[in-house]
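Amino acid chain
________________
===
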Amino acid sequence: MGFWKKFSTFIWPWNGVAILVWIALLLLHSLSFDSYVWLATEDKFGENMTSVFYLLAAVFLIFTSFRNIKKKRHSLIKETLPLLLALFFIFIAGEEISWGQRIFNIATPETIRDTNVQGEMNLHNLSFFDRNAAILNQHTALNVFALLMGLVFPICYSIWPFFRRVADRLFFPIVPLSCSMWFFVGLANGQTLAKIHPHWAHAEIKELLFSIGFCIFGYLRYRSRND
């Protein structure tokens, strides 16, 4: 009975929702590709929501850390890694919308525009991080980050006692397995579907799925339900 309880927790609700969302995206891709592309287009619903989800993830982590400090559950030192992760999510949220450049009608400085492949006021589109870079590029870095945080670390934490002891000692924030499917379907969408039908939109949809997974992670941590 204990096994099936754990199994149902893993599958539902968050992982089940992830599978349903991915199926819906696959149907959208097949039946209305223009709508699929619109969802991934810059400054449209999908990209804006990616930024919102990352920002919400950061807010949940920050609130949780300061609540733990206020109630003297943890010291500020123990909450260092969760707070650094929150700052990283804020950075991603800002980068996703070019730090509000188009919202506030801010022109790109010439020094940045000349080295940015999209002429935007952000770092991840600098030519140094372009997808055509030999080793380091933004897409590979994001894939590795999501793979480690969303799948590898949670699995290691669940089955490897040594990893669990080290993570607990460092107070490393572990994504629960109950929402890991968001990262799996994100990687699957960004890697497999992109091979079948190459298009830039797949990468943006992948980022949206990742952001939902991290937002749920932050929420579960805030609710102290980081199973």
